[in-house]
UniProtKB/TrEMBL annotation:
<dbReference type="InterPro" id="IPR035959">
    <property type="entry name" value="RutC-like_sf"/>
</dbReference>
<protein>
    <submittedName>
        <fullName>Putative translation initiation inhibitor, yjgF family</fullName>
    </submittedName>
</protein>
<dbReference type="InterPro" id="IPR019897">
    <property type="entry name" value="RidA_CS"/>
</dbReference>
<dbReference type="Pfam" id="PF01042">
    <property type="entry name" value="Ribonuc_L-PSP"/>
</dbReference>
<dbReference type="InterPro" id="IPR006175">
    <property type="entry name" value="YjgF/YER057c/UK114"/>
</dbReference>
<comment type="similarity">
    <text>Belongs to the RutC family.</text>
</comment>
<dbReference type="InterPro" id="IPR035709">
    <property type="entry name" value="YoaB-like"/>
</dbReference>
Length: 115
């Protein structure tokens, strides 16, 4: 069974299937803050979605991180390393990308196990 969360006309914020949660790219709401603040917002949104699916950040299988500017890599990692559980770090890729809105500094896509 496929379950969809926060479904809109273009996309769902998350889908689940076969005990795996697939999150849409999460972006910051307040773009008036630096990369650390934007990353913290995105990580909070990820926590909320994972909770809705009945899982948490210790069950993340893969993280795909898109930065508008690789100069923000260290600041992003500062927030990431405070948030990610040591010993349960997921496979991860980080790339520079042109994001959909110019004020977004970061977008993160997550895949996580549910059971």
């Amino acid at each position: 069974m496929i379950q969809r969360f926060d479904t809109g006309p273009r996309m769902s914020e998350m889908t689940t299937h076969n005990d795996v949660a697939y999150l849409a790219g999460q972006v910051p709401e307040d773009t008036g803050v630096d990369i650390v603040g934007q990353t913290e917002q995105v990580l909070h949104a990820i926590d909320d979605l994972l909770q809705q699916a009945g899982t948490d950040k210790t069950r993340i299988l893969r993280a795909e991180i898109f930065l508008a500017d690789m100069a923000d890599f260290n600041g992003m990692n500062e927030a990431w390393e405070k948030w990610v559980p040591q010993g349960a770090t997921p496979a991860r890729a980080t790339v520079q990308a042109k994001l959909a809105k110019p004020d977004w500094k970061i977008e993160i896509v997550i895949t996580a196990a549910i059971a």
